[in-house]
Amino acid sequence: MPDRSAFGQRLADEDERRVEAILDEMTVAEKVGQIVGVPALADVDEAREAVTDHHVGSVHFGGTPHNTPAEKAEFVNELQRAAIDASRFDVPLFVRAMAEHGHAAISGSTVFPQQLGLGATRDPDLAARAARVAAVEMRATGVQSTSSPIGDVARDQRWGRIAETFGESPHLCGEFTAAMVRGYQENDCDDSVLAVTKHFPAYSEGVRGEDQAPNDISEYTLRRVHVPPYEAGIEAGTAGIMPCYNVIDGEPVHGSPRFLRDLLREDLGFTGFTLADYAGAEDLHGGHRATESLEESLWRAVHAGIDLLPSGGAEYCEHILALVEDGELSESRIEESARRVLRLKFALDLFEDPFVDPDDAVATLGRPNHRELAREVARESMTLLRNEGDVLPLDPDLDQVLVAGPNADDIAAQHGGWGSVEDPRPLGDTVLDGIEAAVADGTDVVHERGAGIDETLDVDAARDAAEQSDAAVVVVGEPDYVHEFRASSQAFGAEEFPHRERLTLPEAQRELVEAIHATGTPTVAVLVTGRVLSTPWIAEHVPGLLLAYQPGSEGGAVADVLFGEHDPSGRLPLSVPRSEGQVPVRFNHLTHPTVDHEAHRSSYDPLFEYGHGLSYTDFEYEDLSVSPGEVGPDATVDVEVTVANVGDRAGTEPVEVFATDVVSTRVTPVRELRAFDRVDLDAGDRATVSFSLDVRDFGIVENDGTRTVEPGTFEVRVGDLVESFEVARGRPYRR
Question: Are 653 and 121 in contact (CB under 8 A)?
Fold first, then answer.
């Protein structure tokens, strides 16, 4: 079994000896401290006391008042000095932060689109580059680990944390998860951070679309859909895994040896550290009612395999120490986790250089080249859903353009979750800023907000401005919420965002869009949103509809697409339902019979399909080939297809390969994504795109996770083209 611990490598022999020497001399209390963390809140003294009096070995930063680069660096240095001074072995702190799409909780940082936007790019290498920049900015402020990437597969559009996923395809999620792990941990260099892939093994499918609700899925769905992205992250060398809050098959994952030892370590070969989610241990008694007390919850979590508890501070230390002293937990179990934590600190060179330079932090965050990359990522994510009558791209020389809507000039809404909206104002350009920069000098840009997220403002003023304008851009969508158990920077009623019952725009925003459209002025709606939203009226009536996701600090990228500087190449990573009642709707649903084929509406009939996205040019697919036509169960098949740009301008086409197992002993999806790539073509050009597919990936999934490749016919689809190959009869392949 390969070693897949921190950075995927073993420590130097000298450092291994130092780890063991420290463990040999540590008291039980000192070892316990290494597996407990404390949140770095406003009270510096509280954090310092936990570090100095209870040997707490890690600090977790979520949203804190220390939100400038210099403040964060100085605060980390202060805590590092306290920890080293208090330790008999000069053990430094392990510092973590919520930084899922850039070091977004720090003003001045570069904020990238959230993961759903990254998935839309169909460019894992671009995601890896974004992770690399995020790592550089984190390390500059003294942070060495991030709770990212998110390997969850999005299967219910109501779920509030869907913005943090890469989409609904396990293959897409796996490719992007692995890419971001590599980006964070690249080259084990001084400015790398440890990736913690989360929320293992299946967070995203709680019943009712409710966060943290029980996850009522079969072993088959768990192994076929949810585990593969984590397997990809482990193969890429993720240093950490964070379990999900949910109950699966009646077992709270934070207290389950079945999931944290048998599945994670034995089946998947993970050798890194497991990090509890913030309140994951407390939920064992507080929410799941699986234990009677905090002490019992901590026993169950540590016994199950949790290595690091990030939030409990002194209280957790006291309870765990008592469990060891009473013989309920063995010292060897504590030592197992403490060893993993100490190895991380050596791997990160923290024993040699735990401090950072505040001036360097200021100079590093938001560097021009970092912001340029963020704008590139945001640009590539833009997904054009509708362009009736070629309303887009807009002419930058128009006399007047109206910009309206609640998200046109709202940096917080652009940033999305886990970002700072405190003073000082976060770095970045809003959509309005981008439009003002994109138009010609003589063009008048009129801004009338017209509506808030859920409140009507001056719709009449927006309507009047639209009547006087040559084009109108209405930027609507959601606020900057994280998910349903953490509030937005704004307050909303229970009937509106950010609650899972609503996938349509609030009435105030619908009224604004309809009023502007009624003027007859060419209108484009831009959705700045974490989730995909059901907007059937807009999809039918408004000529232009652009999904911008939550683009991060560089909202000006929206204008790059609106005015044609950049061809839109984003493709939906998630199906868009027609209504809440259609949820869940997904392209890779299982095939099934119907009673009346004529009367039964298609099981997959979304408002916009997975993979949908328009360009300013036109592409055609030609000459799909799959070879050889017959293979063994452990072979590869080569897929080639020609893509032609038949339009009049350059563009980028994401090419996706889908496959269907025509007949199988276990029911399989109507189609599954097996490969994807992007091709850049000038007008009139064509190119052949090639893929090599491992037949072993086509196997049916057994309940123990093995794949069995059965003989039979497999169809391969690219665009509207279909070809097939045969797996020869003989001994099935199992892995």
Answer: no
Going 461 to 467 to 473 to 478, the CA torsion angle's sign is positive
The answer to whether the CB of 246 falls within 8 A of the CB of 212 is yes
Rounded Cα distance, 59 and 95, in Å: 5
Amino acid of residue 310: P
CA distance 518 to 525: 13
Find the mean pLDDT for residues 84-93. 95
Contact, 326 vs 50, CB < 8 A?
A: no
Residue 488 pLDDT: 62
- On whether the CB atoms of residues 645 and 651 are closer than 8 A, the answer is yes
Dihedral pair phi/psi, residue 436, rounded to 5°: -60, -35
The span from the CA of 483 to the CA of 479, in Å, is: 11
Residue 377 CA to residue 127 CA, distance in Å, equals 8
Query: Directed axis angle between helix 69-86 and helix 44-54, to 10°?
Result: 30
Q: What is the DSSP letter of 342?
A: H
Condensed to tens digits (0 to 9), the pLDDT of residues 25-84 reads: 999 999 999 999 998 765 667 778 888 888 999 998 865 566 889 989 998 999 999 999
Supply the DSSP string of 429-475, one letter for each residue.
B-HHHHHHHHS-TTPEEEEE--B-SSSB--HHHHHHHHHT-SEEEEE
Residue with token string 């404390």 = 38
Q: Which residues pair with 309 in a beta bridge?
A: 36
Q: How far is CA 468 from CA 395, 399, 463, in A?
A: 16, 10, 9
- The span from the CA of 351 to the CA of 57, in Å, is 13
Query: What sign for the dihedral angle of Cα 476, 481, 483, 484?
Result: negative
Q: What angle in degrees, to the nearest 10, is found between the helix axes of 368-381 and 124-140?
A: 150
For the chain, state the CA radius of gyration: 26
